[in-house]
Every structure is written in structure tokens, then in C-alpha cells.
Amino acid sequence: MDTKFSVALHILVYISETDKIASSENLAKSVNTNSSHIRKITGLLKQADLISSQQGKSGFSLAMAPEAIGLDRVYRAVYPEKELLHVHDNPNQACPVGKHIQTLVQPSFDLAQEAFISQLANQNLADLITNLYKEEKNK
């Protein structure tokens, strides 16, 4: 399973809340992965104007307030064209099921994708940060 979305959220929360420099190396340690993987995801987040960095200065910062970063925007940053569900390619057109499978299931798949994105749009980075501190308090 692809984890780019959860890693992107991890990166954004870390950047927002750390008192350390949010460098690729520090992010990699927090995520428990390698720096090159972090650089790929931070590149996507920079392209989407969610984070920024300054030449000659180490580390990343949020490009806007956590309240302004909807989780749907983060999802679209790391998966710009991904379909949540995809009908298999090249079904047998001579089969009555294969001939119509896309028409049969695509509307349900589209509704599921819309519901998923809508649910993400109802949450933002600030919500995750609030929940982080609730979790820490409960331990």
C-alpha cells in the first residue's frame, strides 16, 4: 500500500510543530525512512505551495497557516491524478459482463472518490495538530 499521503501529513505536522530545523534528515528520522523519499514528497508539497524553503537556509516551513491546509489539498498534492478506485483494463468485450463492467461500477467508484475527498476537505492540518496534543496528553 502506498503511504505517500500519510508521510506527507507527518511531514506537515512535524514542520509545524518541531522546535528543530525541519531538514530532510530530521524529517526522515521522524518518519523512519530515508532522506531521498522525504525529498520526493517535500518536492510535491513545495509544488503545491504547501511548504517553502529558502536557498542557503536549511529546512522547510509551512507556506500558510495550518488552518488553511485542508487534507484534501494535501491528498491532491501527492496524488494529482490518482483515482481511488479503478476499473480493470481491457475486460473481454465479447462477454456480456465484460462489455458493461465499466458502466456498471464506475458511478459507484466516482461517488466513493467524491465522498473520500469531501471527508478530507472537512479536516485541516490544525485539526491533526490539535489531535496530536490530545494524544500526548492522554498518555
Automatic annotation (TrEMBL):
InterPro entries: Tscrpt_reg_Rrf2 (IPR000944), WH-like_DNA-bd_sf (IPR036388), WH_DNA-bd_sf (IPR036390). It comes from the Bacteria. SUPFAM superfamilies: Winged helix' DNA-binding domain. It holds the Pfam family Rrf2. Signal peptide: none annotated. One of its GO terms (molecular function) is DNA-binding transcription factor activity. GO terms for cellular component: cytosol. This is Rrf2 family protein. It comes from Streptococcus henryi. The lineage of its organism: Bacteria, Bacillati, Bacillota, Bacilli, Lactobacillales.
